[in-house]
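Why PAS and ANTAR domain-containing protein? Reviewers of the renewal asked for a concrete example.
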Amino acid sequence: MFADPDEQQRVGRFQFFLTDRRWVWSDTVARMHGYEPGAVVPTTELLLHHKHPDDRPEVAVVLDRVQSGEPFSSRHRIIDTGGHTRWVIVVGDYMRGADDAVIGTAGFYVDVTEVLQSDVSTAVSEVTESRAVIEQAKGVLMAAHGISAERAFDILVWRSQETNIKVRELAGRFVEAVVGRMSPGTVSQIDHALLTID
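Here is what the prediction returned.
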């Protein structure tokens, strides 16, 4: 018997139809929630029931967007029928009909529980190493645009997603590009500002 390729990849699909407020799960998404395929009819209430209590307020906002047919992304925890907590990434985008009108939202679930558990030490190490160059990139954006550290980081994350480049690598390239192209006038202004502080 062949295994479901979605199950092997821990990726499952879903659809939400605006007209009749109907959810459709793939077999993999059903199993993520602890159900055998076809055992339940997914509803918004059922989805919320399975969300981790600490994540429900955030997920409720996301579900409002889904039910308006809007794109979204979320990383949160679900609790399956056996009481096990799973970390999932859920991403959705417009689902369009034949006339290109928005008819709902379609997307996918990714179960990242095992990845998070097995790679937590590696992730902490990578965050520590990447923090310095990310802070440099944030500093450049903060100085250039007069924005907060949080907004500067938001910009880096946005560009990371747009370019499909990890934030750390993007930050390193950005800093290298800026430093490598600074005009003598800019360097003089920086030096002057540094040396004239009392």
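The radius of gyration is 22 Å. This is the kind of structural detail the renewal will allow us to pursue systematically.
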